[in-house]
Each structure stands twice: as structure tokens, then as C-alpha cells.
Amino acid sequence: MDEKVAKTPRPHMLDADEVAELLRIKKGSAYEVIRKINAEQEARGRVRSDVFDALYFPEVD
């Protein structure tokens, strides 16, 4: 009996254009927002799961 294992849904990563549009700010300011969020996550000792997976579990084609 093959059971399917539920995968944790991956978050959608926002790029600077999307952040700028959502916050109605310029693209340069969007990069500042992204840097701030990334720094906060690093300070908390967290790692983005997509980055971790790409480094340690690359997909084999």
C-alpha cells in the first residue's frame, strides 16, 4: 500500500517588483523592505526552507 506523504506547502517568494506593487512604493524601497525582513529572519536564527532545500536537496532531473 503506497501512502502519499503530505508535503509542507512552500511559501510564494515575493520579488522586489511584487513588494513594490503591494506596498505602492518604488522598487528601490522594496529592496530595503526585503533586506530588512531577511535581516530579521537571520537574527532569529531562521533559514528559508526554499534556500535550504536548494542547497542540500537539489532536484535531480
**Number of separate strands:** 0
Q: Average pLDDT across residues?
A: 81
Strand percentage: under 5%
**Separation of the first and last Cα atoms:** 26 Å
Q: Helix segment count? A: 3
Report the order of strands and helices. HHH
Multimer state: single chain
Shape: elongated
Largest sheet: none
Approximately how much helix is present in the residues? 40-55%
Class based on secondary structure composition and strand pairing: mainly alpha
**Poorly predicted segments:** none
Q: What Rg is obtained from the alpha carbons, in whole angstroms?
A: 16 Å
Please, could you describe this protein's structure?
The structure is a single chain. This protein has 61 residues and is mainly α. The protein has a domain at 16-56. It is 54% helix and 0% strand. The chain contains 3 helices and no strands. The chain has helices spanning 16-23, 27-43, 49-56. Helix 1 crosses helix 2 (27-43). The model has no long low-confidence stretch (mean pLDDT 81).
Q: Which characteristics define this entry?
A:
61 residues; mainly alpha; 3 helices; 0% strand; elongated
Quick overview of this protein structure:
The chain is mostly helical and 61 residues long.
How are the elements arranged and paired?
Elements: H1 16-23, H2 27-43, H3 49-56
Helix pairs in contact: 1-2
